[in-house]
Design brief:
about 280 residues, MetI-like fold, 12 helices
C-alpha cells in the first residue's frame, strides 16, 4: 500500500525595495533623535540653565561692551588675513620658482609654521621685545597679532594659492608669452587673477579660521582696550562667576562666521555650475 507525502507550500517573503528600506531607516533615525530631545528636555533643569548661561542682567551688561571687543576681533582678523595673503602669495610663487633655493626656503617656512601651534607663535612674538629690547611692532598690539597670525596663516594660504596657480591652464600663459608678454606680467595679469577666482572659497575658509584663532591673543597680556571677544567674555565671566558673557561672546563669533560660511557655499555651488 503506497502513501503519498504532501509537501507544504513554501512561504516566500516579499523583498523590501531599497527605497522602502531607506525610508524605514530614516524613520528609525528620526525616532531616536526625537527620543533623545525629549529625554534631554525632561532631564535638564531649565531654571538652572537660564541662570548659568542666559542671565538677563549679564546679557545686557555684556552687550554694552561687545561692540569694542567685536571691533578688536575684526581688526585682528582682517589685518592678519591681509598679511597672510600677501606673504602666502610670495611663498606660493617661490614654491613654483625655477630657482631651487627659493623653493627650499618656501618649503621650510611652510612646513615649520604649519607644524607649530599658533599659540606658541603668538607667545613668541609677544616676548620678542624681551629678547630684543627696543623692538616694537607698529600699532601694537595690533601689529604683533597681525605679524604672528599672518605668518601662520601664510603657510596655509601658500599651499592653497599654489594649487590655484597650477589649476590655471598652461595654454593661456603660453599664449601670452607668444604675444611678447614678459613672464612677470603674465603672472600678474593672467595667472593670479584666475587663480584667486578659483581659490576664493578656501581663502574664505581661512578667514573663518583666523576669526577663531584671534581668540588666542589673550597670551599677549592685553589691556582692557585691546580685549577681543573671548578675552572680554572670560573676564566678565570670572568677575561675575557666570558663563553668560562667554555665551554672548560665542554668539558674536557666529554672527561673523555664519555669513562667511553661507558665502563659501554659494561660491562653491556657483563654481560647480560653471564647470
Amino acid at each position: 500500500m503506497s502513501s503519498t507525502a504532501t509537501v507544504a507550500p513554501r512561504v516566500t517573503r516579499a523583498k523590501i525595495s531599497p527605497r522602502k528600506r531607506a525610508r524605514r531607516i530614516r524613520l528609525v533615525q528620526y525616532a531616536v533623535l526625537i527620543a533623545l530631545v525629549v529625554l534631554m528636555i525632561a532631564t535638564v533643569d531649565g531654571r538652572q540653565v537660564q541662570s548659568v548661561f542666559f542671565r538677563p542682567d549679564l546679557i545686557v551688561l555684556t552687550l554694552q561692551g561687545v561692540p569694542h571687543a567685536l571691533f578688536n576681533t575684526l581688526a585682528y582678523t582682517l589685518g592678519a588675513f591681509v598679511v597672510g595673503l600677501v606673504l602666502g602669495t610670495i611663498l606660493a610663487l617661490m614654491r613654483l620658482s625655477q630657482v631651487a633655493p627659493y623653493r627650499w626656503l618656501a618649503s621650510i617656512y611652510i612646513e615649520f609654521f604649519r607644524g607649530v601651534p599658533a599659540l606658541i607663535v603668538l607667545l613668541s612674538f609677544g616676548l620678542l621685545s624681551v629678547a630684543f629690547p627696543g623692538l616694537r611692532f607698529p600699532f601694537d598690539p595690533y601689529g604683533t597679532v597681525w605679524a604672528a597670525l599672518g605668518m601662520v596663516s601664510a603657510a596655509y594660504m601658500a599651499e592653497t594659492i599654489r594649487a590655484g596657480i597650477q589649476a590655471v591652464p598652461k595654454g593661456q600663459v603660453e599664449a601670452a608669452r607668444s604675444l611678447g608678454m614678459p613672464a612677470g606680467m603674465a603672472t600678474r595679469k593672467i595667472v593670479l587673477p584666475q587663480a584667486f577666482r578659483i581659490i576664493t572659497p578656501p581663502l574664505t575658509n581661512e578667514l573663518i579660521l583666523l576669526t577663531k584663532d584671534s581668540s588666542l591673543v589673550y597670551v599677549l597680556g592685553l589691556t582692557t582696550a585691546a580685549f577681543e571677544l573671548t578675552k572680554f567674555g572670560r573676564e566678565l565671566s570670572n568677575s561675575n562667576v557666570n558663563l553668560t558673557p562667554l555665551v554672548v561672546a560665542g554668539f558674536c563669533y557666529l554672527i561673523i562666521t555664519l555669513p562667511l560660511t553661507f558665502l563659501v557655499r554659494r561660491m562653491e555651488a556657483r563654481q560647480q555650475k560653471a564647470r
